[in-house]
């Protein structure tokens, strides 16, 4: 293969041998394991990665290079044609700018579904049962502390906003708990993909759900999709679960809604300004908080890394991505 080098930004922790095997098909392997945005930009501009055709962007590497925005995309070598990102969410990559530069982008859907849906269910059950208050009380030697009764999931209406890979996996699990499931997407799914859930409008979802699970992607049009006007429409005592992205919810409005008990409680894995968490959430003993660990299992981390590597190999050998982001696949862009 002529001059098709691969670059790893950040680390591959669970599929190191498979990354090294990419060396059999790529003309060269580069690694950028640590550094800063300035350093990375200067190395790009100095031609250090001049023959890189496809790059592997690890999930943690945003901490090194910062967002893949227009400035960074302009600095990348002109040979670069593929960005293989490790993560189902890719709001830190400017996809329209990539498309404009002729760079195709892949993410890691599907591999993340089960682990993230498990965390959504954990948060939902924890929120329904006020688990955080019990956790704290028992460790502080207060036995049940300010214990209050929780709620059963059975017969409750679970509203899923964003019925994609993770949303569907949440629906499958929630059915086992006897929940009634409804969802809203921009368009209704074919019956075979609905998991028995009922399609409703966004407004109906807000008005009639007992638990709302956010499972849609973050972009300019979905930022703060849940804010005060949406909380006002919800049933009193609703439970909010967010394993998608923090900025989907206006966090200050959520704190107000929790304080007024409009929202009974919440289970959150993601926050508006990670790793910062609003003090109104930290100080609320009913809210279940996790530090963005949706996919944090050995099995899922390895599956995600292998999927990025499969995309990388497919880019180098076949000029084709396996899990290209939907925005770049016009026919599926509106699903
Ligand atoms: N907590 C974690 O560790 C973790 C792990 C993986 C993914 N995520 C997040 O979860 C999100 C969902 O992941 P996925 O793999 O299920 O993605 P997906 O693309 O399979 O599903 C997203 C769904 O949201 C729908 N959607 C988009 N905009 C909408 C809108 N305005 N209203 C209603 N529906 C809308 C899409 O049509 C799609 O069906 C990701 O974007 C990512 O940010 C978080």
Structure write-up:
- With 335 residues, the protein is of the alpha/beta class.
- The protein folds into two domains: 5-110 and 299-334, 3-Layer(aba) Sandwich (Rossmann fold); 113-289, Rossmann fold (3-Layer(aba) Sandwich).
- The protein is 34% helix and 15% strand.
- It has helices spanning 16-21, 37-45, 62-65, 70-75, 95-100, 113-128, 131-139, 165-175, 202-208, 228-233, 251-259, 279-282, 298-318; strands at residues 5-9, 29-32, 52-57, 82-85, 104-106, 157-161, 180-184, 198-199, 211-214, 238-242, 263-268, 288-289.
- The strands form two sheets. Strands 8-7-6-9-10-11-12 form a seven-stranded parallel sheet, with helices on both faces.
- Helix 6 (113-128) crosses helix 8.
- The two termini are 36 Å apart.
- Mean pLDDT is 96; it is low at 331-335.
- It binds nicotinamide-adenine-dinucleotide.
- Nicotinamide-adenine-dinucleotide binds at residues 88-89, 109, 112, 116, 161-167, 184-186, 215-218, 222, 243-245, 269-270, 292, 294-295, 335.
- The site of nicotinamide-adenine-dinucleotide has 29 residues, from helix 8.
Question: What would the keywords be for this entry?
Answer:
12 strands; 335 residues; 2 domains; binds nicotinamide-adenine-dinucleotide; disordered C terminus; Rossmann fold; alpha/beta; 34% helix
Query: What radius of gyration results from the CA coordinates?
Result: 21 Å
**Helix/strand class:** alpha/beta
Largest beta-sheet details: 7 strands, parallel
Rough outline = elongated
Q: Give the overall pLDDT as a whole number.
A: 96
The total domain count is 2
Distance between the termini: 36 Å
CATH superfamily of the largest domain: NAD(P)-binding Rossmann-like Domain
Uncertain stretches of 5 or more adjacent residues: 331-335
Give the proportion of residues in helices.
25-40%
- CATH C-level class of the largest domain is Alpha Beta
Strand content: 15-25%
Give the ordered list of helices and strands: EHEHEHHEHEHHEHEEHEHEHEHEH
